[in-house]
Each structure stands twice: as structure tokens, then as C-alpha cells.
Amino acid sequence: MYKFNRQLVLADGTVFKGYAFGANTQVMGEVVFNTGITGYQETLSDPSYNGQIITFTYPLIGNYGINRDDYETITPSIKGMVVRELCQQPSNFRSDKTLDQILSELNIPGIAGIDTRALTRKIRSFGTIKGVIANLDQDPAELVAQMQNTPLAEDQIAQVSTKSAYPVAGRGFRVVLIDLGMKSGILRELTARGCDVVVMPFSVSAEEVLRQNPDGIMLTNGPGDPTSVPQTIETIKALIPLVPIFGICMGHQLISLAAGAKTYKLKFGHRGANHPVKNLLTNKVSITSQNHGYAVDIDSLSNTDLELTHISLNDHTCEGVRHKKYLTFSVQYHPEAAPGPHDANYLFDQFMQNMAEFVTKNKQHN
């Protein structure tokens, strides 16, 4: 039915041949896999995937199309998409466009028809790897040499963070949201609870944050290596004793670094919507949505004022911490879901309770 006309070339020389969809352009990025059965629109628009080529392990992608409501950012920044079978005739009452059409508009190339199971097994065995999506007439050896000579971007958070502060008005607690690559779902959860939100860039100083007189601080998800933003770590370090903080994903890693813990790169990361996480404080298990390539070193927490609160039941990595002295806590997964289960949505209510306690103490003190 389709004639192979596109290839995915990995940095080790492996070549997967398939057929093209989306934009007709050549891209290079880190090849990762996502195990979600649904949620491809939210995934392709998640800023935490900035610079990456996403492989979907579910064999049929695009079957319910694309709609105007399910974007997690206005400007998706993935490099490319890899699928087994692409659906060109979606069936859903909300569908406005096909996946092929929207990727063409966003100038993002895709490749379909390859053995995504073999690709996923390779990544699981050897770790995430650079890859290039290119037309079939390109010499794979030249593409491999190009990858060897071209480093991946290290300013990924700067690429996706807001460039200037802006308000999202509400009548409740004042929350400064530090945008490290924010998913819209986080903002939706705060505004649904009436919060008066001020979104600020990742490079904001502690003084600029405190000038907003916040009742709480939200640190969002984001792409790349958490150690790449030392100025943000210093800002968080200054704010932890002063204001309640809730960190999600990248925000969790930065809180841990600010408290003196360490992070490391996972072999192939956690990306999907069915990851079981145990809450060590309650012994309850939540099924969570996850997207990260780095983790907090559990052993390094012993030298800090943080305590481990959540662990992954898949590989026993750190999934949450809280501060022993201050109203600061964080999780590695996504309680706002989008896509994924809403088991962990209660964490936003915990943040609200911490802000209420903080405001009450301030009133008593004054």
C-alpha cells in the first residue's frame, strides 16, 4: 500500500525504513519511547519532550484525530514522531484534523510502518540514543557522522519557558508558577481551585518572586538535565524557607538539587500513563502519568533535609520527597495527568492546605 520513502537512522548505524507523514524535513533528536495507549496529542504538545523524537509503543496512533482542546502547549517542540501504523481516517466527534495534517502544520516529520517493538527493545537494552529522521535517499553513514559531530541542545528549559511574566487572575491564593516547560494541565488545576497565578520565567530571581507576595510557589515540569539551570536552583534554595513550594517532575528534581541531593540520567526514562507509585506515608498506590529522563538519587537524600515519600514500584526510583522543616514537597510524576489517570490529583489539594496553613501563621504572627 505504501512505498518506503523515509528512514530513521540511529547513532549506532541502525536503520529503520518506513513511510513519511507530517512535514518533509530532516531532524535530529534523542529517540525515546512512550507506552501510553491514548493521549498522543497531549504527548506531542508536552514541552518536556522538547528536542526529542517520540516512539509510540502502541501499534495504532492517530485513530481519534486531533482536536482544539487537548493541547498542553500552544507551540509543540518535539523533533519527530515514530509510529507502527498511522490512522489517516480518524473517528471521533471532537476531531478537527488528522495527526498527519497537524504535524505538517507544525513542521514536525513523522515516520510510520517501522517495527516499533524492535526499536523499543533496543532502547530498553542500550538506553536512549540519538537519531535522525531523513528521506531515504540520504546516506546513513553520513547521517551517523553528522550525529557524532552535533551535540544535543543543553538549553532546553530556556527554549520552552515563558520569556516574560504574565498573570492568570483568580480570587484565591496567590501562586507564583515558575515555568520550566509548563503543561497547561498544571495551570488548569490551579485555576480550578481559584488560585491567582503569576507565571514567571525559569530565570526569575528569588527577589522578583517575593515581590509578588506569593502564598505558594509552583515549580513545573520541563525538559532536559536539571543541572543545566543553576540559577533556578539558587532561586529555589533561597525560597524554600520562606514560602510553601510544590514541585512536579523537573520541579521535583530542582527542589532536590537545591536541598543538596543529586540527580542522574536514567537508562531509558519513564514515559507513559500507567506507572505504579507507592506513597510511603500512606502505603497507598497510585497509577501515574510520567515523562522524565532523570531521577533523584535516593542515597543522596540522607545528607539533606528532605525525606523520601514516594517510590516507583517498577524500578524503586525516587518518585517524591518532602522537606522536614518547611512546607515544601514534590513528586516526579504528573498529578495533573493529561494524559493519564487522575489518582494523584489530591496533591494539588495538599498544596492548597499548605498555603492555607502558611497564610494562617502569617496572620497570627502579624
UniProtKB/TrEMBL annotation:
<dbReference type="InterPro" id="IPR029062">
    <property type="entry name" value="Class_I_gatase-like"/>
</dbReference>
<dbReference type="InterPro" id="IPR006274">
    <property type="entry name" value="CarbamoylP_synth_ssu"/>
</dbReference>
<feature type="active site">
    <location>
        <position position="336"/>
    </location>
</feature>
<dbReference type="GO" id="GO:0044205">
    <property type="term" value="P:'de novo' UMP biosynthetic process"/>
</dbReference>
<keyword id="KW-0665">Pyrimidine biosynthesis</keyword>
<dbReference type="InterPro" id="IPR002474">
    <property type="entry name" value="CarbamoylP_synth_ssu_N"/>
</dbReference>
<dbReference type="GO" id="GO:0004088">
    <property type="term" value="F:carbamoyl-phosphate synthase (glutamine-hydrolyzing) activity"/>
</dbReference>
<dbReference type="InterPro" id="IPR036480">
    <property type="entry name" value="CarbP_synth_ssu_N_sf"/>
</dbReference>
<keyword id="KW-0436">Ligase</keyword>
<comment type="similarity">
    <text>Belongs to the CarA family.</text>
</comment>
<dbReference type="GO" id="GO:0006207">
    <property type="term" value="P:'de novo' pyrimidine nucleobase biosynthetic process"/>
</dbReference>
<feature type="active site" description="Nucleophile">
    <location>
        <position position="249"/>
    </location>
</feature>
<dbReference type="Pfam" id="PF00988">
    <property type="entry name" value="CPSase_sm_chain"/>
</dbReference>
<feature type="binding site">
    <location>
        <position position="291"/>
    </location>
    <ligand>
        <name>L-glutamine</name>
    </ligand>
</feature>
<comment type="function">
    <text>Small subunit of the glutamine-dependent carbamoyl phosphate synthetase (CPSase). CPSase catalyzes the formation of carbamoyl phosphate from the ammonia moiety of glutamine, carbonate, and phosphate donated by ATP, constituting the first step of 2 biosynthetic pathways, one leading to arginine and/or urea and the other to pyrimidine nucleotides. The small subunit (glutamine amidotransferase) binds and cleaves glutamine to supply the large subunit with the substrate ammonia.</text>
</comment>
<keyword id="KW-0055">Arginine biosynthesis</keyword>
<keyword id="KW-0315">Glutamine amidotransferase</keyword>
<comment type="subunit">
    <text>Composed of two chains; the small (or glutamine) chain promotes the hydrolysis of glutamine to ammonia, which is used by the large (or ammonia) chain to synthesize carbamoyl phosphate. Tetramer of heterodimers (alpha,beta)4.</text>
</comment>
<dbReference type="InterPro" id="IPR050472">
    <property type="entry name" value="Anth_synth/Amidotransfase"/>
</dbReference>
<dbReference type="GO" id="GO:0004359">
    <property type="term" value="F:glutaminase activity"/>
</dbReference>
<feature type="binding site">
    <location>
        <position position="293"/>
    </location>
    <ligand>
        <name>L-glutamine</name>
    </ligand>
</feature>
<feature type="binding site">
    <location>
        <position position="250"/>
    </location>
    <ligand>
        <name>L-glutamine</name>
    </ligand>
</feature>
<comment type="pathway">
    <text>Amino-acid biosynthesis; L-arginine biosynthesis; carbamoyl phosphate from bicarbonate: step 1/1.</text>
</comment>
<keyword id="KW-0028">Amino-acid biosynthesis</keyword>
<feature type="binding site">
    <location>
        <position position="224"/>
    </location>
    <ligand>
        <name>L-glutamine</name>
    </ligand>
</feature>
<feature type="domain" description="Carbamoyl-phosphate synthase small subunit N-terminal">
    <location>
        <begin position="4"/>
        <end position="134"/>
    </location>
</feature>
<dbReference type="Pfam" id="PF00117">
    <property type="entry name" value="GATase"/>
</dbReference>
<protein>
    <recommendedName>
        <fullName>Carbamoyl phosphate synthase small chain</fullName>
        <ecNumber>6.3.5.5</ecNumber>
    </recommendedName>
</protein>
<keyword id="KW-0067">ATP-binding</keyword>
<dbReference type="GO" id="GO:0005524">
    <property type="term" value="F:ATP binding"/>
</dbReference>
<feature type="binding site">
    <location>
        <position position="253"/>
    </location>
    <ligand>
        <name>L-glutamine</name>
    </ligand>
</feature>
<comment type="pathway">
    <text>Pyrimidine metabolism; UMP biosynthesis via de novo pathway; (S)-dihydroorotate from bicarbonate: step 1/3.</text>
</comment>
<keyword id="KW-0547">Nucleotide-binding</keyword>
<dbReference type="InterPro" id="IPR017926">
    <property type="entry name" value="GATASE"/>
</dbReference>
<feature type="active site">
    <location>
        <position position="334"/>
    </location>
</feature>
<dbReference type="GO" id="GO:0006541">
    <property type="term" value="P:glutamine metabolic process"/>
</dbReference>
<dbReference type="InterPro" id="IPR035686">
    <property type="entry name" value="CPSase_GATase1"/>
</dbReference>
<feature type="binding site">
    <location>
        <position position="48"/>
    </location>
    <ligand>
        <name>L-glutamine</name>
    </ligand>
</feature>
<feature type="region of interest" description="CPSase">
    <location>
        <begin position="1"/>
        <end position="173"/>
    </location>
</feature>
<dbReference type="GO" id="GO:0006526">
    <property type="term" value="P:L-arginine biosynthetic process"/>
</dbReference>
<feature type="binding site">
    <location>
        <position position="222"/>
    </location>
    <ligand>
        <name>L-glutamine</name>
    </ligand>
</feature>
<feature type="binding site">
    <location>
        <position position="294"/>
    </location>
    <ligand>
        <name>L-glutamine</name>
    </ligand>
</feature>
